[in-house]
Every structure is written in structure tokens, then in C-alpha cells.
Write a structure and sequence with these properties.
With 289 residues, the chain is of the alpha+beta class. The chain has 2 domains: 97 residues; 122 residues, endopeptidase domain like (from Nostoc punctiforme) (endopeptidase fold (from Nostoc punctiforme), Alpha-Beta Complex). 57% of the residues lie in helices and 12% in strands. The strands form 2 sheets. Strands 3-8-4-5-6-7 form a 6-stranded antiparallel sheet. It has a two-stranded parallel sheet with strand order 1-2. The N and C termini lie far apart (167 Å).
Length: 289
């Protein structure tokens, strides 16, 4: 037996005659169609050559596209121009607003400066009037100083002396010396820390005035406001120390000279002045003499 006798045959079954005839017919039809198309080919050549007109259509379309692109670009340019104009207008508005605010600020500053200048002029005019008044009164004060000293001596004799170690005549003499020194410094400059001879601060002037009477006072106003016996502002005597602020914490001192007036080194604007107590009412007073 052959060695391949056990292997099944792979041959396809024989087709039926009807199917073979059908396939032959289909193949023949296809070949016939191809033959007809080949025969008809030369007859269709002339219409194909008429498609040369396509470049004309393409050219017109390109022109339209180019025109549309140009229009779009112009719109974009117009929008960009409008945006630039809007930005410029906004910037101009901000600049104008800032300029207006600056103008208002300058106007207010000028108004304040004018008000300050006017107030300063009025203060200077008042100061000149006070100086003229003090000048006319100094003669009267000088003429009446002798009688004032006698009156002070009499009152000291009738009342207990504020200092048990001083006689009434010594108190009067010391007060007169202190007042005379203080009045002689009117018109001198004010300098912080100044102790004379032509520039003072408030406590420097008081200390120097009392030194003429042989009395050493503390240097600063806080200590001077507690250097003696506290007295009422209604019972002041020439030579008493006036102070502004609290006793022991005073920020300014001056010397009472009688007649409701005092002499003090006020500030850098006024210097050393003689003024009425009503001009700047002190807080309290101490009596050292």
C-alpha cells in the first residue's frame, strides 16, 4: 500500500456544468465591456481637451479669495487702529484726571500758605503793638517801682514771710533785682538751652534772673516749678515764678513782674517778651523769695 493512501484528498469537488457556464458568461461580459470601452475611447478624446478652461475658473476664484483676505486684513487693521485710539483716549483721560487732582492739591496748598502768611502777619502786627504798649508802660513801671517796693515791704511785714531766713527789705530788694534783670532781656533771642547773655530759653532766663539776687535755682522748668512755695495766681508778687503745665512736670516758666504781666523767653518766633497774663494764662506759680 502506498504511504499516502491514508491522507484524504484535498482536491475541490468538480463544479457543476451550470456554474461553469455562468462564470464563463460573466467573464465574457466583462471582456466585452472592456472591448467596447476601448473602442469608444478615441471618440471621447475631443471633450477631454475642453477642460483647459479650468485655469480661468481657478484664476477668478483666487482673485475672490485674495479680495476677501484683503478685506479681512483691512478689518483687522481697523480694529487695531480703534483699539489704539481707545487706549490713547483712556490714557489721556487718566492724565487729565491726575493733572486735575494735582491742580486741586496745589490750590489747597497755596490757600493754606496764604492763610498761614496772613496769620503770621497778624501775629507780628499784634506783637509790634504789644511792644509799643510795653515801651510806653515801662516809664510808668519804672516810676512806680519805688512805691511798689514799699508796698511789698509793708505787706511782707504784715504777713508771715515766705522765707524765715530773709527780712522784708531783702525780699523787696531781691524781687526788684529779679524783675529789673528780666525786663532788661526783653527783645533777646530764644535759643533752646540758651543761658545768655543775649539768647535764652525759658528756664535759663529765670535761673539767670534769680542769680542776680544770689539765689541758685535748678536749671530746668520742671524743677523750677517746685523750687518754692505754691501760691495762688490771685495773690502773686513781683519775682514769683509762673509755670505752665503741672507742678514738677512744667514745660514752660516765666517771671511775674507785677501789673498782671510777666517776662519770659517764649519761643524762637517771639524771643524774650513781656506780656499780659491774659495772653497766655499760666497753670500755677511758686514763690522762692
Amino acid at each position: 500500500m502506498s504511504h499516502t493512501a491514508h491522507i484524504p484528498s484535498h482536491r475541490k469537488p468538480r463544479q457543476r456544468a451550470s456554474k461553469s457556464a455562468l462564470r464563463a458568461g460573466v467573464a465574457g461580459g466583462v471582456l466585452s465591456t472592456i472591448a467596447v470601452a476601448g473602442a469608444a475611447g478615441p471618440a471621447q478624446a475631443e471633450p477631454v481637451t475642453q477642460t483647459i478652461e479650468m485655469p480661468t475658473i481657478t484664476s477668478g476664484f483666487s482673485t475672490a479669495v485674495a479680495a476677501s483676505a484683503q478685506a479681512t486684513q483691512q478689518v483687522a487693521l481697523d480694529l487695531e487702529t480703534q483699539a489704539d485710539e481707545d487706549a490713547a483716549a483712556e490714557k489721556a483721560a487718566k492724565t487729565a484726571k491726575k493733572a486735575h487732582a494735582e491742580a486741586v492739591r496745589k490750590a489747597e496748598a497755596e490757600k493754606k500758605a496764604e492763610a498761614a502768611a496772613k496769620a503770621k502777619a497778624e501775629a507780628e502786627a499784634k506783637e509790634r503793638a504789644e511792644r509799643a504798649s510795653r515801651t510806653s508802660e515801662r516809664t510808668t513801671l519804672s516810676a512806680s517801682s519805688g512805691s511798689s517796693d514799699s508796698s511789698d515791704s509793708g505787706s511782707s511785714a504784715s504777713a508771715p514771710s515766705s522765707s524765715s531766713n530773709s527780712s522784708s527789705s531783702n525780699v523787696s530788694g531781691s524781687a526788684a533785682s529779679i524783675v529789673a534783670f528780666a525786663k532788661a532781656q526783653v527783645g533777646d533771642a530764644y535759643v533752646s538751652g540758651g543761658t545768655g547773655p543775649n539768647a535764652w530759653d525759658c528756664s535759663g532766663l529765670v535761673q539767670a534772673a534769680y542769680r542776680t539776687a544770689g539765689i541758685d535755682l535748678p536749671r530746668v522748668s520742671q524743677s523750677q516749678s517746685t523750687a518754692g512755695t505754691q501760691v495762688s495766681l490771685d495773690s502773686l508778687q513781683p519775682g514769683d515764678i509762673l509755670y505752665w503745665g503741672g507742678a514738677g512736670s512744667a514745660y514752660h516758666v516765666a517771671i511775674y513782674i507785677g501789673g498782671g504781666e510777666f517776662v519770659g523767653a517764649q519761643n524762637s518766633s517771639t524771643g524774650t517778651v513781656q506780656r499780659s497774663m491774659d495772653y497766655d494764662r499760666p497753670t500755677g506759680a511758686v514763690r522762692v523769695l
